[in-house]
Amino acid sequence: MDPSCRVPPVQACGGSAVIWGCCRWSGLGSATLCAQRMRCVCPTGVGAMTWSPLACGLLSGKYNEGVPESSRAAMKGYTWLKERLCSDEGKKQLSKIKELHLLADRLNCTAAQLAIAWCLPSEGVSSVLLGVSNTEQLLENLGSVRVLSQLTPPLIAEMDALLGNKPRNVKKEARR
Asked: Taking the complete model, does pTM exceed 0.90, yes or no?
């Protein structure tokens, strides 16, 4: 068993830790299964903090017309992001994101606000980590709260169909 999986749940469920965090772990499903294996499912359950809800800026629209010099993908150490954007798969993603922008326009919000609002009520999400580099971005991202009331089941189904990446329901799958 992965040591990062073994130690923190024991500490968390033993009362010596209130919050357990991990980075680049393969998801909430893994965390839930790990906690179950360790017989350490805390009474409050498992909650996730989403990281990069705007997919490193893809959902903001900044890469719709290429890679701006001032963007993360142009920075040293982020060649993986630039390569991803320029790949066939990246081009497919950008095409879907352009359609998401049209959906956001219908709702009178930005695609970034729509994406963050979509994350907020998701089952298992405790909070959404915003990665902003200026006050303007922060204010735009906080505007996602006003979009929440527009997220109807049909709209969410439309987004899920458009993006093709609907999250799995780990709780329901575990019961099967």
From this structure: no
Largest CA distance in the chain: 51
- With a cut of 80, say whether residue 31 has pLDDT above it: no
Band the pLDDT of 108: cuts 50, 70, 90.
very high
> DSSP secondary-structure letter at 167?
P
Distances (CA, A) of 41 to 13, 36, 44, 47: 7, 6, 8, 12
Domain range for 108: 47-175
**Domain with 71 in it: what CATH number?**
3.20.20.100
Alpha helices (runs of H) in 87-176, residue ranges in sequence order = 88-106, 111-119, 135-142, 153-163, 170-175
CA distance 12 to 34: 13
Does residue 59 lie in a domain region? yes
